[in-house]
Write a structure and sequence with these properties.
The complex is a heterodimer of chains A (640) and B (293).
Chain A lengths: L1 H19 L11 H16 L3 H12 L6 H28 L8 H34 L5 H38 L2 E4 L2 E4 L3 E3 L3 E8 L11 E9 L2 E4 L3 E5 L2 E7 L3 H6 L5 E2 L6 E15 L2 E15 L4 E4 L3 E3 L3 E8 L5 E7 L7 E7 L2 E8 L6 E9 L8 E10 L1 E2 L2 E4 L3 E4 L3 E8 L5 E7 L2 E8 L3 E7 L4 H4 L1 E12 L4 E2 L1 E11 H16 L1 H17 L2 E6 L2 E6 L13 H14 L9 H8 L5 H19 L6 H16 L1
Parallel strand pairs in A: 1-11, 3-11, 13-19, 20-28, 22-29
Antiparallel strand pairs in A: 2-4, 4-8, 5-6, 5-10, 7-8, 9-10, 10-11, 12-14, 14-17, 15-16, 15-18, 18-19, 21-23, 23-26, 24-25, 24-27, 27-29, 30-31
Helix pairs in contact in A: 2-3, 2-4, 2-6, 3-4, 4-5, 4-6, 5-6, 13-14
Chain B lengths: L1 H23 L17 H5 L4 E3 L4 H5 L4 E6 L8 H8 L3 E5 L6 H7 L4 E10 L3 E2 L2 E9 L6 E3 L4 E5 L6 E7 L4 E4 L11 E2 L3 E8 L2 E6 L15 H9 L4 E5 L7 H6 L12 H24 L1
Parallel strand pairs in B: 1-14, 2-3, 2-14, 3-13
Antiparallel strand pairs in B: 4-8, 4-10, 5-6, 6-7, 6-9, 9-12, 10-11, 12-13
Helix pairs in contact in B: 1-8
Classes of the chains: A alpha+beta (640), B alpha/beta (293).
């Protein structure tokens, strides 16, 4: 029996534990989207070959605290391979670039071989590492759309990285073959002059000068590769011309703000100059074959692509009426047309009110308020990026209100009846149809649509409890315009309603009460009763009469100054005769015991008695020294 | 007579003990200046010498140049004009608000295009001990100063043209405003560098807005560079107040203020004993007078 119970209990416990602690999914407290963004940003820094930022992000990514060991392993593996790629790309760039052509050919070939092999391995392995990491992150996904957005961006960047690796591989192949085929490779010294700052969306020309003497650059023997790099964005510069034997002129089109923002290129603000900029890089590589020699040179220059917040001022009225047209003024100090989107309360697609292209100068936009709920709202003006002008946002608070119908109304303050008739005279100044609703004591008594500007109404009030006697009645007159643009106006008054019949009856009643002795007598005697209860004392001072109840006046008795001597005196007499009785006054006690006292102290006893009485019952000053002297005399006599 | 005396003595002693207990026991209310635990502000009082202030009075405005006021805002602000006048006349005001209660003050009275968003900013990547609730807050353009916060809100600068910013402290670009309050990045949340601390020159004074109640709390002041951050603002500021008008403050808290004016700057046993001794002396003097009569 007991064993069955144990089995039952254990089954119950099993069921309970399985329901309370279900086998949970792998999702813990990791938000994978920021990890995806970190990876995306990290690959961008590799693509833009920003080594300092790459190293900073790598160190941070490797030191991240990740509780899931599996995720931590794939996370660190992915970042390590990317970091290695960054290092090998930098190394390859150095091999391809200037400065290494003076070293031993065999050593250079060895370096090329090593870099080449590594690049091939990384190009092959990169996908596996990244996909594994992204797949692992995906298991923690809370919001799929948010993660997929960054997942796609990562794959796009990985694709760009593959392209970059391929370019470097092919460049190394070229270099290797040229070294094998030619015994002599020399470096080309290139000089390039580009401005430090260029506005986004602009084009500019720059000249590449070959500084080596005796080298004549021409189309036949020269291979020129020029690239513009901005993070994940890169373009080959194909628009160049060889202007003379040592100079090449190239035209470069800097991407506009829209392109920069869509590629997710970092826009930084310079605290000193307060300029917004993105960093761009121009890479120029020239291979020149002259006779048996191959001349290779490359140069890299960074410059700032400046962006500007558009100087656009938006002015909106602080309020607008419903179902009307609101006028928004936009002052544009931008010479070019700018696209602007206006949103209500939130910058989301479903809150878009309108798109508009604004021109230089004053732009006036009319906005219909019919679809906007009355109340406080915020208008967001999203300025789209264009040329050097970056995207920007303006906001403005606005109250959507009803128009108040303008009207005057005269309402009575006093109503006499019965019958009670309400005379209303008023005027509506707005040219609208309206409904007049009269509410008396929360009861609607009149509700009609009226035309015309003047209101003359005579409305009979219903007989209610208030109208039987004298009472206040609340009267509300609502003017409700039928046009929804306007909001109703209300006039209220608390009118005193006087029922004449009631007043008449009341007067008669008072008369009866006053004349009939049965009622009038007690009423007449009432004041005297009150007077007995509360007595008054009338004080007259400086011609002003004050009334003060006598109960407020009380006597102030002071305590006995001779209390100590009095107690001693009674004590002494008690020891000689008998104690003082409770129902005796001092005088009675002395008179009763006087005969039993010794002759020598009798005079002093009489004198002291009168002194104590004076102290007890009067407010006179008492000669304490005299009391002390008499007491001493008594004690002296008794001792002798 | 004896009965009455015993009753009076017991009453006085009880009151003394209750007051003593009230003075000794710290508050447990979060962000109370009398709360000595991690989530309190007591270090502002005992370590940095701030004194509770109930209202900005004209005398404080007269000494604005050497005054710093920390103003934690936990409910709607009532007195706007004196606050603005204090900063305008050269005072330093550290406004701490995570919920946007001071938006009206900033927008309508300071006329600054600044809004405190009452949604939490999380950072999964640049955070303290792997907790996204603890974002690291850096001085803009510099990684040297690193503050640690707890679920801060973001300060939105609507227009930079008319604001003279002295310095700003921001989260990393991997932080986001959690608009739907689910603690995860979801569509609609904003990945961006978010301003948490903004220091502005206003009139002759300085206004520092901190959108995190915890940065200067007892436990967080010890973390990162939070302590250094506060100390920098205290230079040359001899008069230090913490304005308690917009934070929960009870009658007991007001009684606790007595300790600041006793014999030292700390609630220690010495001050409590001296308080009890003074009370006992008063009782003895009272008894003596009675007997003499």
């Amino acid at each position: 029996m007991v064993s069955i119970k144990v089995i039952h209990i254990s089954i119950i416990i099993m069921v309970l534990t399985t329901t309370v602690y279900p086998v949970n999914s792998i999702r813990g407290d990791i938000d994978p989207v920021p990890y995806a963004l970190l990876l995306d940003t990290y690959i961008s820094t590799i693509l833009s070959q920003d080594l300092n930022k790459e190293l900073e992000l790598y160190n941070h990514a490797i030191s991240l605290v990740i509780d899931d060991l599996q995720l931590k392993i794939v996370h660190q593996r992915a970042y390590k391979i990317l970091h290695d790629i960054s290092l090998i790309l930098n190394n390859t760039q150095m091999i391809i670039g200037i400065g290494l052509y003076n070293i031993d050919h065999d050593k250079l070939l060895d370096m090329i071989r090593k870099s080449y092999t590594k690049l091939l391995i990384y190009d092959n392995e990169l996908d596996d590492y990244i996909y594994e990491y992204v797949k692992r992150l995906e298991q923690y996904v809370y919001s799929k759309p948010a993660f997929f957005k960054y997942k796609n961006r990562i794959y796009e960047k990985i694709h760009a990285l593959h392209k970059l690796l391929s370019r470097y591989i092919s460049q190394l192949e070229d270099l290797y073959s040229s070294i094998i085929s030619n015994s002599s490779i020399e470096s080309l010294i290139l000089e390039i002059n580009i401005p430090e700052k260029v506005y986004a969306g602009q084009s500019f020309k720059f000249i590449v000068n070959v500084e080596n003497p005796y080298i004549k650059v021409n189309d036949k023997y020269t291979n020129i590769i020029m690239t513009l790099l901005m993070g994940p964005y890169y373009r080959d510069i194909e628009n160049y011309t060889i202007i003379n034997s040592s100079s090449i002129e190239a035209l470069i089109n800097v991407p506009d703000a829209d392109t920069i923002e869509s590629y997710g290129i970092d826009i930084v603000r310079d605290r000193a100059t307060r300029e917004f900029y993105a960093t761009a890089r121009i890479s120029v590589k020239i291979v020149y074959k002259g006779g048996n020699n191959t001349y290779i040179g490359s140069v890299i220059r960074d410059f700032r692509v400046l962006l500007e917040p558009p100087k656009i001022v938006v002015k909106t009225p602080s309020y607008a009426y419903i179902n009307s047209t609101m006028l928004i003024t936009i002052y544009s100090y931008v010479k070019d047309p700018i696209n602007i989107s206006i949103y209500l309360d939130r910058v989301e697609h479903d809150r878009l009110i309108m798109n508009k292209t604004i021109m230089y100068g004053v732009n006036k936009i009319s906005l219909n308020t019919s679809n906007i709920e009355p109340g406080y709202h915020t208008l967001f003006f999203k300025i789209h990026p264009d040329k050097q002008y970056m995207s920007s946002m303006r906001s403005s608070a606005i109250a959507i209100i009803h128009k108040t119908v303008s009207a005057t109304m005269s309402l009575p303050n006093l109503l006499f009846g019965p019958p009670f008739t309400l005379n209303i005279h008023g005027k509506v100044y707005d040219n609208v149809k309206y409904r007049v609703r009269i509410i008396v004591d929360d009861i609607a008594i009149y509700d009609k649509v009226l035309k015309g500007k003047n209101i003359y109404l005579y409305v009979d009030l219903p007989i209610t409890l208030q109208s039987i006697m004298i009472w206040f009645r609340s009267i509300e007159v609502w003017i409700i315009p039928l046009n929804k643009t306007y909001q109703p106006t209300v006039f209220t008054v608390n009118a005193l309603s006087v029922n004449i019949l009631f007043v008449f009856i009341l007067l008669i009643m008072i008369g009866i009460v006053y004349l009939h002795p049965m009622i009038s007598r007690p009423l007449i005697t009432l004041p005297s009763w009150i007077r007995r209860i509360i007595s008054y004392r009338v004080l007259e001072e400086r011609g002003i009469t004050y009334l003060k109840p006598i109960s407020m006046i009380y006597l102030r008795y002071r305590s006995m100054k001779t209390k100590r001597y009095y107690k001693l005196f009674i004590k002494t007499l008690a020891s000689l005769t008998r104690p003082m009785m409770e129902n005796e006054t001092l005088r009675e006690y002395i008179n009763n015991v006087k005969d039993d006292l010794p002759e020598g102290i009798k005079d002093y006893v009489v004198k002291l008695t009168s002194l104590f009485e004076e102290d007890m019952y009067s407010n006179h000053h008492i000669n304490l020294a005299l009391v002390k002297r008499y007491m001493r005399e008594i004690i002296r006599v008794l001792k002798s | 007579m004896k009965y009455k005396l015993v009753l009076t003595l017991t009453g006085v002693l009880l009151v003394t003990i209750i007051i003593s207990i009230l003075l000794i026991i710290p508050s447990s209310r979060p962000y109370s200046i009398w709360n000595t635990s991690g989530n309190g502000y007591s270090k502002l009082i005992y370590r940095y010498g701030f004194k509770p202030l109930h209202e900005i009075i004209p005398n404080i405005i007269r000494q604005a140049n050497s005054t710093i006021i920390i103003y934690p805002v936990f409910r709607q602000i009532e007195d706007f004009n004196r606050t603005v006048e204090f900063v305008d006349k050269g005072g330093t005001l550290i406004l701490i608000d995570e919920k946007g209660y001071s938006n009206e003050l900033l927008y309508l009275y300071f006329h600054l295009p600044i809004i405190i968003d009452n949604h939490t900013v999380y950072d999964e990547i640049y955070c303290y001990k792997g907790k996204r609730e603890n974002p690291l807050i850096y001085k803009y353009d510099s990684k040297n100063v690193e503050l640690i916060g707890w679920t801060p809100a973001a300060i939105k600068l609507l227009d930079t043209t008319n604001v003279s910013i002295i310095e700003e402290y921001t989260t990393s670009k991997f932080s986001y405003i959690d608009k739907d309050n689910n603690k995860y990045y979801t569509p609609g949340d904003e990945f961006n560098i978010h301003i948490i601390i903004l220091s502005i020159k206003y009139g002759y004074g300085r206004l520092i807005i901190i959108s995190d109640y915890d940065i200067i709390s007892n436990s967080y002041i010890e973390l990162g560079d939070n302590n250094l951050f506060l100390i920098r603002y205290l230079e040359n500021k001899t008069i230090r107040y913490i304005l308690v008008s917009s934070m929960p403050y009870t009658v007991i808290d007001s009684i606790r203020e007595i300790t600041l004016y006793m014999n030292s700057n700390t609630i220690d046993t010495k001050s409590i004993i001296s308080f009890i001794l003074i009370t006992l002396l008063i009782i003895m003097a009272y008894i003596g007078e009675k007997r003499g009569a």
